[in-house]
Amino acid sequence: MNRLVRFLSSVRLAITLFILVTIASILGTLLPRFYLYRTPAYLALLLLFALSIMACALTRSLPRLRRTLKPSWDWTAESLAAEPESRTAGTGVGLEAASGALRAALSGRRYRIREERRDEVVLLAARRRTWGGFGADVVHAGLLVILAGAILSGVAGWRTDLSLVPGGSADVPSAGFQVRLEAFRTETYPDGAVKDWKSRLTVLDGGAPVRTETIEVNHPLRYKGVRIYQSGYGWNWEEAALVLRVRKRDDPSSERLLEVRTGGEARIPGTELTVAAARFVPDFVINARNEVGTRSLEPNNPAVLIEAEKGGRTVLSAWLFANHPEFDRIRERVETGLAFELLEVRADPLSILQAAFDPGAPFIWFGCAVLMFGLGLAFYWPSREIRAAVTARRGRTEAVLSGRAPKAREALTKDIAAAAEAVAQERS
Amino acid sequence: MTEANVFLAAFLLYIFAAVLYLLSLLLRKDGAARKGYLLAAAGAGLHTVALVLRVFVSSHAPFTNMYESLSFLAWVSMTAYLALERRLAIRKAGPFFLLLVTALMALASSPLMPKEAAPLVPALQSHWLWLHVSVTLVGEAFFAIGTVTSLLYLAAARRERPGEAVRSGRDAAHWDAVSYKLIAVGFPLFTLGALVFGMVWAYRAWGSYWSWDPKEVWSLVTWFLYALYLHTRIAMGWKGRRSAIVAVLAFLAAMFTFFGVNYLLSGLHSYA
Fold first, then answer.
1. Taking the CB of the first residue and of the last residue of chain B, which one, N or C, has fewer CB atoms within 10 A?
2. Average of pLDDT values for A346-370?
3. How far apart are CA A305 and CA A184, in angstroms?
4. Segment (H or E) for A187
């Protein structure tokens, strides 16, 4: 167990994990979306990271906290003198006066001082911005909270898209309530670019309306912990109205307009033919396998597959293109003498909403706050710690000082020099 | 005076400032660098005017497309440098830093960058746009200066031979310490702007605080590399060459996040 904790808390492991997660994350941006970040290997890497942070907290932070609250007083003049930051100052005054001068110099530099007296030795532990020393621990605690929140989001959270036409309503799955779209509006800039989408929504709980609110991008609605976002707009192609123009080939003036719904059919007046809109795509494309599909949900290249029947027999099937009336892909089985065009496509706009439940989010925000507080402590409030041993020997008093301030080395060096100088200047 | 003219004037002042700084380096005349500093400060002043004009013309934050973002990054970096030059004693980094700023300005004014102030798409209409981008870029400005000083460390350390040139040795140690300071100031800002504010905004606009969008992942990669820099330094006592190399790599990742992701990887951050 101890060996495991030692392994997990080692800086080497942390560094290795940094490098591995970095490389893996970079690879992930080159692979198809999301793929790598959901693989067990990547998640295991993150988990190992969390364990390493926890082990680091156990083995470093707790002892450090103990040391801060209660100095160990385990240093001597000799051990301090061996440290790289150490300075030594001698004076002719007695132990009392010398340690008093040192205390005054350090408290003048806003250090808080504790003292331990032994025979002929005074030990001083001085700290400035003590809590800054715990910045890294606070950062790590924040990261653990964030990781816990992310796990909670992944395990218990859900999100789902809802498409609503004005007047329509939908169940919000696993939320136990419904939303009804009262009105949907696309606002545009003068140049026609989309400025915003606004949906007026009513929340129906148990069938009864409980709240009506207008949402827009960046301003979701919140009900029972579920957030409803405006994510975009679309077209209700499933119920699009298609206007067809039918003409006799030998008499172009014999024009008739026909309205068919997607999936519906209509009789062509003056003939025994019925025409059905078998399939509609808003943005016609043929893929590599020679199948018809749609490139997008925008009406960039609307096309309809019509099938004409006469007495229960299909006599014609053809793809018609609204943007390319001259071009059709007709497979005619029986001569009908008719020419078809797709004249117009009308569809209701759809409001596309996203419903999301994310129980991890509060942890994320709390974790972020802790993380930022910790970073502030660590980098903008760097702690300095000075230890000193003042010894009286054969009528002369000597003060040895050393310290630790990994994030404020230069300031520490100055403080130590100034304190040493203060001792050296002390005269009876 | 239109925004484009003021921008151009600022750009020209930066170029002159860069020339003066370079002259001071080559001729070892401190006076030229001091004049360069004044020209750069004047340039930054005009640049500020250009950005304010931009905000009035477009009525949104001045960092919604590549031209604006590059210009803003150049402005923040320049301002941060001017504020820190004396305090951190980094005047010798001036010539190189001004070259970097001039390069950013040149890139911003290249014909490849559309300059029109386009209206904001729905997702960008939020005050989080100001917070997210500006704080991130302030963090990156510190990283930018820290990168120049890291490169100067590498150059100074190469010149250094054991037993000779004490001065260059002192230079190297100075660049090493200054680089750390700059990165230590930039790191919390980058964390707050890019990751924390980014997550808050993503949660409001996209309904999810993290979507593994390439720009998000690359921000995380940048963050990891700077965290690596700080850990190796603070916990493992790395200094000098190894530290400087990590710092430069981390900044390359930051620049890829800022720039490369938009052109090479597609995702949710398609607008900037």
1. N
2. 94
3. 30
4. strand A177-188
Look at A375 and B191 and tell me if their CB atoms are within 8 Å. yes
Give A-chain residues touching B119 at CB under 8 angstroms: 189, 191, 193, 195
Which chain B residues are closer than 8 Å to A134 by Cβ?
A: none
- The model's pLDDT over B157-196, given as tens digits with 9 standing for 90+, comes to 887 665 554 555 568 889 999 999 999 999 999 999 999 9
> Residues A124, A125, A127, A131: what is their CA dihedral angle, to the nearest 10 degrees?
-160
User: pLDDT tens digits for A187-236?
Assistant: 988 888 888 999 999 999 988 999 999 999 999 999 999 999 998 888 88
CB-closest option in A159, A196, A375 to B207: A159
CATH architecture of B1-113: Up-down Bundle (1.20)
For residue B50, what pLDDT is reported? 95
Out of B209, B218, B265, closest to residue A361 by CB? B209
CA distance A135 to chain B (A): 12
| pLDDT for position B239 | 85
- B39-85 confidence digits (pLDDT tens): 999 999 999 999 999 999 888 999 988 899 999 999 999 999 999 99
- Supply the pTM of this predicted model: 0.87
Residue numbers of A between 333 and 362 with CB closer than 8 Å to B: 354, 356, 358, 361
Q: Which two tokens stand for residue A312?
A: 């229960």
Check A364 against B126: CB less than 8 A apart.
no
CB contact under 8 A, B220 and A25: yes
Q: Which pLDDT tens digit goes with each residue over A141-164?
A: 999 999 999 999 988 999 999 999
Residues with Cβ within 8 Å of B236's Cβ and at least 6 positions away in sequence, in order, are A11, A15
Question: CB neighbours of B3 closer than 8 A, spacing ≥ 6?
Answer: B50, B53, B54, B57
Higher pLDDT pick, A171 / A427:
A171
Return the pLDDT at B227.
Answer: 95
Q: Does A356 sit within 8 Å of B187, measured CB to CB?
A: no
The DSSP line for A338-397 is: EEEEEEEEE--EEEEEEEEE-TTHHHHHHHHHHHHHHHHHHHHS--EEEEEEEEEETTEE
- Residue B56 sits at the chain A interface (C-beta within 8 Å): no
Strand order in A169-172's β-sheet?
A169-172, A177-188, A194-205, A208-216
Of chain B, the percentage scoring pLDDT greater than 90 comes to: 69
SS3 label, residue A328:
strand
Residues A235-253 have pLDDT tens digits of 888 888 999 888 887 887 7
Say if B249 is an interface residue toward chain A (CB within 8 Å): no
Chain A touched by B34 (CB under 8 Å): no
Does the pLDDT at position B270 exceed 70? no
What is residue B127's three-state secondary structure?
helix
* Closest CA–CA distance from residue B222 to any residue of chain A (Å): 9
What is the share, in percent, of chain A residues with pLDDT greater than 90? 44
Q: Could you say which of A153, A372, A410 has the minimum Cβ distance to residue B192?
A: A372
Contact across the interface for B208 and A33, Cβ inside 8 Å: no
pLDDT at B222: 97
What is the distance, to the nearest Å, from the Cα of residue B122 to the centroid of all Cα atoms in its chain?
28
Q: Does B186 touch chain A (CB under 8 A)?
A: no
Q: Is B58 helix (H, G, I), strand (E, B) or coil?
A: helix
- Under 8 Å between Cβ of B237 and B41: no
